[in-house]
Amino acid sequence: MRVLISGACGRMGQEVVKTIVNDTDHLPVGAFDRINSDHDILKELGLEGEECLVFDDLEKAIKKVKPDVIVDFTSPEVVMDNIEIGLHNRVHMIVGTTGITEVDMEKIEKWAEEYQRNILVVPNFAIGAVLLMKFAARAARFLDQVEIIELHHDQKIDAPSGTALKTADLINENIRKQSSGSKKVDEIEKLAGVRGGVKNGINIHSVRLPGLVAHQEVIFGGEGQSLTLRHDSYDRKSFMPGVRLALEKIATIDGFVYGLEKIMDES
Ligand code: NAD
Protein backbone atom coordinates (compact mmCIF):
# COMPACT_ATOMS: atom_id res chain seq x y z
CA MET A 1 0.00 0.00 0.00
CA ARG A 2 1.42 3.38 -1.03
CA VAL A 3 0.68 5.78 1.84
CA LEU A 4 0.57 9.58 1.82
CA ILE A 5 0.70 11.09 5.31
CA SER A 6 -1.26 14.31 5.73
CA GLY A 7 -0.14 16.44 8.68
CA ALA A 8 3.13 14.47 8.57
CA CYS A 9 5.14 17.08 10.48
CA GLY A 10 2.79 17.11 13.48
CA ARG A 11 2.96 14.93 16.59
CA MET A 12 0.69 12.18 15.25
CA GLY A 13 1.87 12.49 11.65
CA GLN A 14 5.50 11.91 12.67
CA GLU A 15 4.53 8.83 14.67
CA VAL A 16 2.64 7.47 11.62
CA VAL A 17 5.68 8.05 9.39
CA LYS A 18 7.89 6.18 11.90
CA THR A 19 5.40 3.31 12.05
CA ILE A 20 4.95 2.92 8.29
CA VAL A 21 8.64 3.15 7.46
CA ASN A 22 9.25 0.00 9.53
CA ASP A 23 6.31 -1.84 8.01
CA THR A 24 6.96 -4.27 5.18
CA ASP A 25 3.39 -4.04 3.81
CA HIS A 26 3.27 -0.25 3.48
CA LEU A 27 5.45 2.41 1.90
CA PRO A 28 5.45 6.12 2.83
CA VAL A 29 5.48 7.71 -0.63
CA GLY A 30 4.74 11.33 0.21
CA ALA A 31 3.66 13.77 2.85
CA PHE A 32 1.46 16.85 3.10
CA ASP A 33 1.93 19.66 5.60
CA ARG A 34 1.95 23.44 5.64
CA ILE A 35 5.39 23.35 7.27
CA ASN A 36 8.69 21.84 6.07
CA SER A 37 7.55 21.63 2.42
CA ASP A 38 10.14 20.27 -0.04
CA HIS A 39 11.94 18.52 2.83
CA ASP A 40 12.37 14.75 2.96
CA ILE A 41 10.37 13.81 6.06
CA LEU A 42 12.38 10.60 6.55
CA LYS A 43 15.64 12.57 6.67
CA GLU A 44 14.03 15.11 9.02
CA LEU A 45 13.14 12.27 11.40
CA GLY A 46 16.51 10.51 11.02
CA LEU A 47 14.87 7.51 9.31
CA GLU A 48 16.17 5.41 6.46
CA GLY A 49 14.19 4.75 3.30
CA GLU A 50 13.36 6.10 -0.12
CA GLU A 51 12.78 9.86 -0.33
CA CYS A 52 9.39 10.95 1.05
CA LEU A 53 8.88 14.62 0.19
CA VAL A 54 6.60 17.00 2.07
CA PHE A 55 4.22 18.90 -0.26
CA ASP A 56 2.25 21.99 0.75
CA ASP A 57 -0.56 21.19 -1.71
CA LEU A 58 -2.47 17.93 -1.20
CA GLU A 59 -3.80 17.63 -4.75
CA LYS A 60 -0.33 18.15 -6.23
CA ALA A 61 1.07 15.58 -3.81
CA ILE A 62 -1.54 13.01 -4.88
CA LYS A 63 -0.86 13.60 -8.57
CA LYS A 64 2.88 13.31 -8.04
CA VAL A 65 3.17 10.28 -5.72
CA LYS A 66 -0.04 8.38 -6.62
CA PRO A 67 -0.92 6.99 -3.16
CA ASP A 68 -3.42 4.17 -2.52
CA VAL A 69 -4.39 5.71 0.81
CA ILE A 70 -4.03 8.98 2.72
CA VAL A 71 -3.69 8.97 6.51
CA ASP A 72 -4.82 12.35 7.86
CA PHE A 73 -3.89 13.83 11.24
CA THR A 74 -4.18 17.57 10.64
CA SER A 75 -6.72 19.92 12.15
CA PRO A 76 -10.52 20.30 12.29
CA GLU A 77 -10.18 23.45 10.14
CA VAL A 78 -8.65 21.71 7.14
CA VAL A 79 -9.68 18.06 7.41
CA MET A 80 -12.89 18.38 5.35
CA ASP A 81 -10.97 19.96 2.44
CA ASN A 82 -8.43 17.14 2.64
CA ILE A 83 -11.12 14.47 2.65
CA GLU A 84 -12.87 15.98 -0.36
CA ILE A 85 -9.59 16.28 -2.29
CA GLY A 86 -8.56 12.72 -1.37
CA LEU A 87 -11.84 11.04 -2.29
CA HIS A 88 -12.33 13.19 -5.39
CA ASN A 89 -8.91 12.00 -6.58
CA ARG A 90 -9.98 8.41 -5.89
CA VAL A 91 -7.71 7.74 -2.95
CA HIS A 92 -8.92 5.81 0.13
CA MET A 93 -8.76 7.84 3.36
CA ILE A 94 -8.00 7.00 6.99
CA VAL A 95 -8.88 10.01 9.13
CA GLY A 96 -7.74 10.44 12.72
CA THR A 97 -8.29 14.19 12.86
CA THR A 98 -11.00 14.96 15.40
CA GLY A 99 -13.63 17.70 15.55
CA ILE A 100 -15.64 16.52 12.50
CA THR A 101 -19.30 17.44 13.00
CA GLU A 102 -22.33 15.21 12.37
CA VAL A 103 -23.31 17.37 9.38
CA ASP A 104 -19.80 16.85 7.96
CA MET A 105 -20.14 13.07 8.47
CA GLU A 106 -23.18 13.11 6.18
CA LYS A 107 -21.14 14.94 3.53
CA ILE A 108 -18.32 12.40 3.87
CA GLU A 109 -20.74 9.51 3.40
CA LYS A 110 -22.08 11.11 0.18
CA TRP A 111 -18.56 11.75 -1.18
CA ALA A 112 -17.51 8.14 -0.47
CA GLU A 113 -20.52 6.95 -2.47
CA GLU A 114 -20.05 9.48 -5.26
CA TYR A 115 -16.32 8.86 -5.72
CA GLN A 116 -16.51 5.11 -4.96
CA ARG A 117 -13.70 5.15 -2.42
CA ASN A 118 -13.42 3.95 1.18
CA ILE A 119 -13.01 6.24 4.17
CA LEU A 120 -12.49 5.25 7.76
CA VAL A 121 -12.97 8.01 10.35
CA VAL A 122 -11.60 7.05 13.76
CA PRO A 123 -11.87 9.46 16.71
CA ASN A 124 -9.55 7.24 18.77
CA PHE A 125 -7.04 4.72 17.43
CA ALA A 126 -6.07 3.42 20.89
CA ILE A 127 -7.50 -0.08 21.20
CA GLY A 128 -7.81 0.36 24.99
CA ALA A 129 -9.95 3.46 24.47
CA VAL A 130 -12.24 1.57 22.09
CA LEU A 131 -12.58 -1.19 24.70
CA LEU A 132 -13.40 1.44 27.32
CA MET A 133 -16.23 2.69 25.10
CA LYS A 134 -17.54 -0.85 24.71
CA PHE A 135 -17.38 -1.54 28.46
CA ALA A 136 -19.12 1.80 29.14
CA ALA A 137 -21.92 0.87 26.72
CA ARG A 138 -22.35 -2.44 28.57
CA ALA A 139 -22.31 -0.82 32.02
CA ALA A 140 -24.96 1.67 30.87
CA ARG A 141 -27.45 -1.18 30.68
CA PHE A 142 -27.24 -1.51 34.47
CA LEU A 143 -26.23 1.94 35.75
CA ASP A 144 -27.98 4.93 34.18
CA GLN A 145 -26.31 7.85 36.00
CA VAL A 146 -23.03 8.70 34.34
CA GLU A 147 -20.58 11.51 33.64
CA ILE A 148 -17.52 11.61 31.36
CA ILE A 149 -14.21 13.34 32.09
CA GLU A 150 -11.76 13.59 29.20
CA LEU A 151 -8.25 14.91 29.74
CA HIS A 152 -5.85 15.98 26.97
CA HIS A 153 -2.65 17.93 26.35
CA ASP A 154 -3.02 21.71 26.20
CA GLN A 155 -2.45 21.95 22.41
CA LYS A 156 -5.69 20.14 21.56
CA ILE A 157 -7.98 22.50 19.61
CA ASP A 158 -11.40 20.84 19.85
CA ALA A 159 -13.33 20.15 23.03
CA PRO A 160 -14.85 17.86 24.04
CA SER A 161 -12.83 15.08 22.42
CA GLY A 162 -14.34 12.97 19.63
CA THR A 163 -13.98 9.96 21.93
CA ALA A 164 -16.04 11.60 24.68
CA LEU A 165 -18.82 12.44 22.21
CA LYS A 166 -18.78 8.92 20.80
CA THR A 167 -18.81 7.42 24.31
CA ALA A 168 -21.84 9.56 25.17
CA ASP A 169 -23.60 8.32 22.01
CA LEU A 170 -22.86 4.67 22.80
CA ILE A 171 -24.00 5.05 26.41
CA ASN A 172 -27.18 6.75 25.23
CA GLU A 173 -27.93 3.91 22.80
CA ASN A 174 -27.55 1.33 25.57
CA ILE A 175 -28.94 3.04 28.63
CA ARG A 176 -32.09 1.50 30.04
CA LYS A 177 -33.82 4.22 31.97
CA GLN A 178 -34.34 2.76 35.38
CA SER A 179 -34.84 4.42 38.69
CA SER A 180 -31.53 4.42 40.49
CA GLY A 181 -33.22 5.94 43.49
CA SER A 182 -31.28 9.18 43.42
CA LYS A 183 -33.37 12.33 43.41
CA LYS A 184 -32.50 14.89 40.69
CA VAL A 185 -32.33 18.40 42.06
CA ASP A 186 -32.63 21.77 40.32
CA GLU A 187 -28.97 22.64 40.14
CA ILE A 188 -27.66 26.17 40.48
CA GLU A 189 -24.44 26.74 38.54
CA LYS A 190 -22.58 29.42 40.47
CA LEU A 191 -19.77 29.35 37.93
CA ALA A 192 -20.89 29.15 34.28
CA GLY A 193 -20.07 25.80 32.69
CA VAL A 194 -18.87 24.20 35.92
CA ARG A 195 -21.07 21.12 35.36
CA GLY A 196 -19.60 20.61 31.87
CA GLY A 197 -21.28 20.32 28.49
CA VAL A 198 -24.25 18.01 28.03
CA LYS A 199 -24.65 15.43 25.24
CA ASN A 200 -27.68 13.11 25.32
CA GLY A 201 -28.23 14.10 28.95
CA ILE A 202 -24.67 13.07 29.86
CA ASN A 203 -22.32 15.69 31.35
CA ILE A 204 -18.90 15.85 29.70
CA HIS A 205 -15.95 17.64 31.33
CA SER A 206 -12.82 18.58 29.36
CA VAL A 207 -9.46 19.08 31.08
CA ARG A 208 -6.51 20.57 29.12
CA LEU A 209 -3.06 20.51 30.72
CA PRO A 210 0.57 20.15 29.64
CA GLY A 211 2.01 16.73 30.45
CA LEU A 212 -1.17 14.90 29.47
CA VAL A 213 -1.57 12.95 26.20
CA ALA A 214 -5.11 11.48 25.95
CA HIS A 215 -7.12 10.11 28.86
CA GLN A 216 -10.75 9.40 29.64
CA GLU A 217 -12.77 8.44 32.68
CA VAL A 218 -16.37 7.32 32.62
CA ILE A 219 -17.92 7.36 36.07
CA PHE A 220 -21.18 5.56 36.70
CA GLY A 221 -23.04 6.20 39.93
CA GLY A 222 -25.68 4.09 41.58
CA GLU A 223 -27.16 3.91 45.04
CA GLY A 224 -24.24 3.53 47.45
CA GLN A 225 -21.75 2.65 44.68
CA SER A 226 -19.81 3.96 41.74
CA LEU A 227 -17.98 2.34 38.85
CA THR A 228 -15.03 4.12 37.24
CA LEU A 229 -13.66 3.07 33.85
CA ARG A 230 -10.44 4.78 32.83
CA HIS A 231 -8.11 4.64 29.86
CA ASP A 232 -4.76 6.43 29.51
CA SER A 233 -2.68 6.99 26.39
CA TYR A 234 0.70 7.95 27.85
CA ASP A 235 2.42 8.02 24.47
CA ARG A 236 1.32 8.55 20.86
CA LYS A 237 2.65 5.05 20.15
CA SER A 238 -0.58 3.83 21.77
CA PHE A 239 -2.46 4.87 18.61
CA MET A 240 -0.23 3.00 16.14
CA PRO A 241 -1.62 -0.58 16.39
CA GLY A 242 -5.00 0.96 15.50
CA VAL A 243 -3.51 2.85 12.55
CA ARG A 244 -1.86 -0.38 11.32
CA LEU A 245 -5.17 -2.22 11.60
CA ALA A 246 -6.87 0.57 9.62
CA LEU A 247 -4.23 0.27 6.88
CA GLU A 248 -4.82 -3.50 6.72
CA LYS A 249 -8.58 -3.08 6.34
CA ILE A 250 -9.06 0.12 4.35
CA ALA A 251 -9.18 -1.51 0.91
CA THR A 252 -11.89 -3.98 1.94
CA ILE A 253 -14.32 -1.89 4.01
CA ASP A 254 -17.39 -0.67 2.17
CA GLY A 255 -17.52 3.13 1.65
CA PHE A 256 -17.73 5.24 4.81
CA VAL A 257 -17.03 3.59 8.18
CA TYR A 258 -16.92 5.42 11.54
CA GLY A 259 -15.03 4.00 14.51
CA LEU A 260 -12.21 1.50 14.99
CA GLU A 261 -14.57 -0.96 16.70
CA LYS A 262 -16.22 -1.62 13.31
CA ILE A 263 -13.01 -3.22 12.02
CA MET A 264 -11.82 -4.91 15.24
CA ASP A 265 -12.22 -8.66 15.00
CA GLU A 266 -13.41 -10.01 18.33
CA SER A 267 -13.56 -13.67 17.37
P1 NAD B 1 -0.27 18.72 15.56
O1 NAD B 1 -0.68 20.16 15.64
O2 NAD B 1 0.96 18.28 16.25
O3 NAD B 1 -0.15 18.31 14.01
C1 NAD B 1 -1.01 18.75 13.02
C2 NAD B 1 -0.19 18.92 11.74
O4 NAD B 1 -1.10 19.30 10.70
C3 NAD B 1 0.87 20.02 11.86
O5 NAD B 1 2.13 19.59 11.38
C4 NAD B 1 0.31 21.15 11.00
O6 NAD B 1 1.33 21.93 10.35
C5 NAD B 1 -0.54 20.39 9.99
N1 NAD B 1 -1.60 21.25 9.46
C6 NAD B 1 -2.53 21.92 10.18
N2 NAD B 1 -3.29 22.66 9.35
C7 NAD B 1 -2.82 22.45 8.11
C8 NAD B 1 -3.18 22.95 6.83
N3 NAD B 1 -4.15 23.86 6.68
N4 NAD B 1 -2.50 22.51 5.75
C9 NAD B 1 -1.48 21.62 5.89
N5 NAD B 1 -1.09 21.12 7.09
C10 NAD B 1 -1.75 21.54 8.16
O7 NAD B 1 -1.55 17.88 16.06
P2 NAD B 1 -1.59 16.35 16.52
O8 NAD B 1 -1.44 16.27 17.99
O9 NAD B 1 -0.71 15.55 15.64
O10 NAD B 1 -3.13 16.01 16.21
C11 NAD B 1 -3.64 16.10 14.90
C12 NAD B 1 -5.11 15.69 14.92
O11 NAD B 1 -5.22 14.31 15.30
C13 NAD B 1 -5.96 16.47 15.90
O12 NAD B 1 -7.24 16.67 15.37
C14 NAD B 1 -6.05 15.52 17.11
O13 NAD B 1 -7.19 15.75 17.89
C15 NAD B 1 -6.12 14.21 16.38
N6 NAD B 1 -5.74 13.03 17.17
C16 NAD B 1 -6.44 11.90 16.91
C17 NAD B 1 -6.11 10.73 17.54
C18 NAD B 1 -6.89 9.49 17.21
O14 NAD B 1 -6.61 8.43 17.79
N7 NAD B 1 -7.83 9.57 16.26
C19 NAD B 1 -5.05 10.69 18.46
C20 NAD B 1 -4.34 11.87 18.70
C21 NAD B 1 -4.68 13.03 18.03
Describe this structure in words.
There is one protein chain. This protein is an alpha/beta fold and 267 residues long. The protein has 2 domains: 2-121 and 236-264, 3-Layer(aba) Sandwich (Rossmann fold), CATH 3.40.50.720; 127-233, Dihydrodipicolinate Reductase, domain 2, CATH 3.30.360.10. It contains 8 helices and 12 strands. It has helices at 11-21, 41-44, 58-65, 79-88, 102-115, 127-139, 162-174, 240-249, and strands spanning 2-6, 27-32, 54-55, 69-72, 92-95, 119-121, 145-152, 197-199, 202-208, 214-222, 225-233, 256-258. α4 (79-88) links the parallel β4 and β5. The mean pLDDT is 94. Nicotinamide-adenine-dinucleotide binds at residues 7, 9-13, 33-35, 73-76, 78, 96-99, 122-125, 156, 214, 239. Nicotinamide-adenine-dinucleotide is lined by residues 7, 9-13, 33-35, 73-76, 78, 96-99, 122-125, 156, 214, 239.
| Ligand names | nicotinamide-adenine-dinucleotide
Rg over CA atoms: 20 Å
CATH topology of the largest domain: Rossmann fold
> What is the ordering of alpha helices and beta strands?
EHEHEHEHEHEHEHEEEEHE
Quick one: overall form?
A: elongated
Q: If strands are numbered along the chain, what order do they take across the biggest sheet? A: 3-2-1-4-5-6-12
Q: Count the domains.
A: 2
Reported CATH architecture of the largest domain? 3-Layer(aba) Sandwich
DSSP strand (E) fraction?
A: 15-25%
The protein's oligomeric status is: single chain
Q: Extract low-pLDDT stretches.
A: none
The CATH class name of the largest domain reads Alpha Beta
Share of helix among residues?
A: 25-40%
Total beta-strand segments:
12
| Overall SS class | alpha/beta
